[in-house]
Design goal:
Elements: E1 10-19, E2 27-34, H1 46-52, E3 56-61, E4 67-71, E5 75-83, E6 92-97, E7 102-107, H2 118-122, E8 128-133, E9 136-141, E10 145-151
Antiparallel strand pairs: 1-2, 1-5, 2-3, 3-4, 5-9, 6-7, 6-10, 7-8, 8-9
């Protein structure tokens, strides 16, 4: 029995993470999420995880299986690998990131009408903002966005 009675079950979520030092090549890692959300029923979402842990988080490299600790403040983005269900058309946004990558994304998070402008969205309190890109969620560190503009 030993340490097994202290084991906390986690959900293993595969993600692509791009750190400042990596240029434009993200690496695939496994993140470990809680089985239960602090804010409601069901599993902890990646957005909840990213916006509640601002320091170092444990990951496992998908290729080597090696464990590591990653400083989320150095992450440019974390991209989920599972596709999102097709959705109605959303506002399209162009972003320029600190590594000089230009990226087209779509709004994903709903904001109240009184705070639905792009400026409000980018000035939210959360360090990671969720967008939609090529059918998957991408959580971009808002401190790594240099410029943004909306498209019609």
């Amino acid at each position: 029995m030993g340490n097994q009675s202290y084991k906390i079950e986690k959900i293993i979520r595969p993600v692509e993470i791009l750190l400042d030092i990596q240029g434009n090549q993200p690496e695939t890692f496994a993140l470990f999420l809680n089985q239960y959300s602090r804010f409601g029923t069901g599993e902890e979402s990646l957005a909840e995880f990213l916006n509640s842990n601002t320091g170092f988080v444990p990951v496992r490299n998908a290729k080597s299986g090696a464990p590591a600790l990653i400083n989320l403040q150095e992450a440019i983005y974390i991209r989920e690998t599972e596709p999102v269900q097709p959705m109605a058309a959303r506002k399209k946004i162009s972003l320029l990131l600190v590594n000089r990558t230009e990226m087209d994304v779509e709004h994903f998070q709903e904001m109240p009408d009184s705070r639905s402008r792009l400026l409000d969205f980018l000035n939210s309190d959360e360090p990671f903002i969720c967008f939609l890109r090529e059918g998957t969620k991408i959580h971009i560190n808002r401190n790594k966005i240099i410029r943004s503009s909306e498209h019609e």
